[in-house]
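FW: tagging you since you asked about this chain on Friday. Here's the raw sequence from the shared folder, copied in full. Didn't touch anything.
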Amino acid sequence: MGERFVKPTAMDAAFNKAVGWFTRMGMPMAGSRVLAVRGRSSGQWRTTPVNPLRVAGSRYLVGPRGHAQWTKNLRASGEGELRVGRRVERFTAVEVPDHEKPPILRAYLKAWAWEVDRFFEHLDADATDAELLIVAPGVPVFRIDPA
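HL: got it, structure written out here
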């Protein structure tokens, strides 16, 4: 899968806009947050809704669409903010190597398959480690820690 990116459809864009609005108003949908990260070229804040995930005591951000602009910006900056309403949580981020992704991807699919399964070649939480390792290079995962 490598450097893949799945462009949002018009329906995806409308859904993300609604989720982002509710989250910015302090009413997150299913634990959503607004990710804010500085652009790697402009230095300007860029925002997008995300679904943080906790696995085995650590928190993660998963890029289900692949190597989107937010994943490239986070990779370059190594830090960002998770926002909900007026609350801002600053964090540092470390990208997870592919061989460590299967349990995280499995947990992500368990929590969010209803929203993201089409980006995972229709794998689900019952996928084997081998199947998840095949898609791992195309799905950025970042461990996030308080700054």
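FW: The chain has a mean pLDDT of 91.
HL: agreed, and Residues 10-146 form a domain with the Pnp Oxidase; Chain A fold (CATH 2.30.110.10).
FW: great, closing this out.
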